[in-house]
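Milestone 3.1: sequence recovery, worked example.
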């Protein structure tokens, strides 16, 4: 009996001892050998974290500029504490190296968190699996495919315009555009990618829509402890974890029916035409699901996980961009009027060869330079993804364009990084950088797009569509053309029809969860109420 007790005691001492050694190593020993330690950066006590300063949109813009002045374009900050050095860089040479090199992956904690919600899709895959998935979905995002779905965006925008007309006719003057645009982009996404109409603009009752909505709203509420320690959700599921599981059950059940229907449809169309090729997202995923080659085959579950990942990535992001766009137009009435005037002009499609309706509607939207400038300026000034993280899977030397002086005075021309270190790519910070965009970088000025400084043009600027908003490299956003076309379709439908302004005394801020969303200062929740007035002389495209 005594010996059993002694053994138990010994086990406890050993476990506690191991834990103690682990903590001492984490807090004191390991940081001593971290090459980032010597890099310039903000200081603080052992448990001081700078995370708030780098992710809160109300603070980050100013803080980034202060640190850049103090430490240069590449520096380190404290993640969870002084023991957790993170690299932040505004140097495109370093950013390009990190985003283009296979050494750097999304951190495991990010991938695990996303996979509890979305399953195993393109967001959580890395290496050859990721390359395989990107290859399957690629054809859904070519210019030709986006042209083919542009009429869907225009039709959905018409539905939203009609619905807002009804609301105004009932006497309502202020509309939460954030909520309505989220409903509308869900509808557009459902039809463009799944050939499925959620009818969310009409009413929010559809089962699959509600399941996605609930899941994404809850993801924003998830506490940091459960993100860092994901097995807590299995051991002791809280309200959020239970609700995510329930939503995923509905998505799988309803999604399976949708897939079965689309599969039958695809097979019968294939039988009638040897050359039949389905280029919409669900069609491409199903073709892979039906492949005879096991190395190219996606299982039913993997297919549903991909769909969840795309909904997550593509629906609310575009809604938020449109929301912020209406906000900027509401607060810059001169720009709103100019855009309306451009949209009232008869359009001259770019492409002389446009032969079908899809091409014409896309080319019409694309032939409006001020519309293009307004969309891009919004995407620059309000990127829904505030920043992204990468982790080094091997030690590496990151090239930089300007030498950096270490704390001991040594000048370095490469940043040494060890396995497991976290790198923060400040998407918003790069979009706001005065050295790239000039001194008025924080102003909404669409005219800058007609004469961009050379620092914002390729080859100096590597981001997709001349923005960091969609990132670049192997994990960059495949949906950037989709978003730009959808934003143009909505703006060209609602701007000629309605005038937008900010309600008296309302002040709007940005809040960061998974995405950057608007809120009204002093009021709870995510929202952007705007006063909408009908313009009776409607100028069609
Ligand atoms: C304003 C709209 C959007 C923004 C700002 C945006 C931004 C981004 C960014 C920054 C990434 C890279 C994330 C990282 O490297 O950590 C990304 C990835 C992704 N985006 Fe978008 N996105 C938008 C719209 C869309 C749309 C419309 C779709 C699909 C229809 C889409 C699908 C994806 C997917 C699947 C990925 C993952 C790519 C990968 O890991 O290989 N996004 N997006």
């Amino acid at each position: 009996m005594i010996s059993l007790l002694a053994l138990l005691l010994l086990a406890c001492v050993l476990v506690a001892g191991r834990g103690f050694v682990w903590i001492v190593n984490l807090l004191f020993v390991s940081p001593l050998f971290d090459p980032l330690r010597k890099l310039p950066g903000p200081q603080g006590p052992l448990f001081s974290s700078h995370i708030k300063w780098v992710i809160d949109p109300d603070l980050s813009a100013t803080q980034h500029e202060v640190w850049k002045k103090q430490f240069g374009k590449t520096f380190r900050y404290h993640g969870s504490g002084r023991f957790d050095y993170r690299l932040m860089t505004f140097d495109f040479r370093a950013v390009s190296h990190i985003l283009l090199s296979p050494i750097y992956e999304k951190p495991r904690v990010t991938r695990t968190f996303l996979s509890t919600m979305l399953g195993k899709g393109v967001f959580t895959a890395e290496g050859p699996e990721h390359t395989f998935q990107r290859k399957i979905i690629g054809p859904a995002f070519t210019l030709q495919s986006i042209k083919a779905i542009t009429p869907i965006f225009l039709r959905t925008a018409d539905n939203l315009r009609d619905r807002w007309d009804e609301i105004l006719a009932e006497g309502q003057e202020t509309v939460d555009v954030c909520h309505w645009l989220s409903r509308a982009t869900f509808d557009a996404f459902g039809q463009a990618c799944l050939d499925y109409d959620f009818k969310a603009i009409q009413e929010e009752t559809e089962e699959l829509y509600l399941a996605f909505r609930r899941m994404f709203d809850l993801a924003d509420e998830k506490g940091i402890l459960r993100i860092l320690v994901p097995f807590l959700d299995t051991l002791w599921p809280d309200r959020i974890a239970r609700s995510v599981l329930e939503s995923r059950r509905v998505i799988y059940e309803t999604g399976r029916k949708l897939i079965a229907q689309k599969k039958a449809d695809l097979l019968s169309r294939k039988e009638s035409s040897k050359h039949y090729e389905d280029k919409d997202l669900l069609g491409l995923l199903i073709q892979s699901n039906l492949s005879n080659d096991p190395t190219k085959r996606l299982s039913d579950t993997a297919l549903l996980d991909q769909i969840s990942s795309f909904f997550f990535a593509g629906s609310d992001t575009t809604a938020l961009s449109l929301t912020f766009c209406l906000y900027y137009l509401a607060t810059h009435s001169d720009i709103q009027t100019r855009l309306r005037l451009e949209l009232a002009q008869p359009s001259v499609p770019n492409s002389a060869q446009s032969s079908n309706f899809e091409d014409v509607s896309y080319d019409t939207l694309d032939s409006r330079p001020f519309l293009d400038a307004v969309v891009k300026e919004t995407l620059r000034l309000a990127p829904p993804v505030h920043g992204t993280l990468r982790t080094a899977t091997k030690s590496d030397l990151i090239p930089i364009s300007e030498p950096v002086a270490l704390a001991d005075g040594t000048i370095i021309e490469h940043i040494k990084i060890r396995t497991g270190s976290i790198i923060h790519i400040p998407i918003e910070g790069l979009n706001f950088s005065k050295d790239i965009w000039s001194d008025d970088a924080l102003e909404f000025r669409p005219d800058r797009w007609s004469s961009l400084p050379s620092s914002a043009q390729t080859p100096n600027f590597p981001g997709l569509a001349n923005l960091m908003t969609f990132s670049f490299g192997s994990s960059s956003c495949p949906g950037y053309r989709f978003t730009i076309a959808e934003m143009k379709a909505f703006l060209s439908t609602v701007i000629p029809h309605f005038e937008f302004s900010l309600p008296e005394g309302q002040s709007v801020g940005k809040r960061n969860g998974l995405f950057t969303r608007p809120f009204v200062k002093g009021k709870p929740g995510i929202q952007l109420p705007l006063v909408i007035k009908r313009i009776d002389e409607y100028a069609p495209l």
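The pocket of protoporphyrin IX containing FE is lined by residues 106, 122-123, 134, 309-310, 313-314, 317-318, 321, 383-385, 388, 469-471, 475-479, 482-483 (CB under 6 Å). The two ends are 88 Å apart (CA to CA).
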